[in-house]
Design goal:
Blueprint (H helix, E strand, L loop, with lengths): L2 H35 L2 E2 L8 E2 L3 H8 L1 H32 L6 H9 L6 H12 L6 H8 L11 H29 L3 H9 L4 H12 L4
Antiparallel strand pairs: 1-2
Helix pairs in contact: 3-7
Length: 214
């Protein structure tokens, strides 16, 4: 790296310093201390810090609740990302076309992503509540069905949370996909149309290979 290269990139380095500093203070340093103290037996109520090696990790792996939590986290991550991508991709292709009112639809779909987690939590608590005020259960009762405990039933709750997460962050994936779609040259589609390629062939041979997946 020569002096000219460093000088040219110096403004960008200075601009990155605040972000790197904040990230280091609130993430890197706590991570280092957390990792360090995970090998010790220590509480806030005792001044003694005793080295315990891998004992804490052995207890962690032996705890059935922890393992169940890890399993649920893995299921949540895989299903959320998969469903979100499968839904947002076709919607992005549609909203990147010459659809009338596409700007309005983009705003509507992206709106949940700007809501705070607290607002989303209260909103869906009202919608999914098993009480007499739960919106979905009110509809089910009027249709003659029994109530469903969406958030209290262990077999259903994780899928309810997945649905909420997909609803909130689907718009974010959509925006990333649309940005990626707009980077694909329109000349490719024009050339494909001239060659007689239909919409599905264009999607499969031009759109998908040209996407930068979120």
């Amino acid at each position: 790296m020569n002096a000219n290269h460093v000088k040219r990139n110096l403004p960008y380095i200075f601009m990155a310093i605040p972000a790197v500093s904040i990230f280091s203070v609130f993430f890197i340093i706590p991570l280092i201390f957390t990792t360090k103290y995970s090998f010790y037996n220590w509480t806030n109520f005792s001044p003694d810090i005793v080295f315990s090696g891998l004992k804490n990790y052995k207890q962690l792996l032996a705890d059935g609740i922890i393992l169940k939590g890890l399993k649920n986290t893995l299921v949540f991550a895989i299903l959320t990302v998969s469903i979100q991508s499968l839904i947002s991709l076709p919607v992005s292709v549609l909203l990147n076309s010459k659809l009338r009112g596409r700007t309005i639809y983009r705003g509507i779909f992206f709106a949940p992503a700007v809501l705070s987690t607290l607002v989303v939590g209260y909103l869906w608590k009202y919608i999914l509540s098993a009480s007499d005020y739960g919106l979905i259960n009110q509809v089910l009762l009027k249709l003659g069905f029994e109530k469903i405990n969406f958030l209290g039933n262990g077999k259903i709750a994780i899928f309810s949370i997945i649905a909420i997460s997909v609803w909130q962050w689907f718009g974010w994936s959509m925006v990333i996909y649309i940005g990626s779609l707009q980077s694909i040259s329109g000349d490719l589609y024009e050339a494909a149309s001239v060659d007689g390629a239909n919409s599905w062939q264009q999607f499969w041979h031009i759109t998908l290979p040209g996407l930068h997946l979120p």
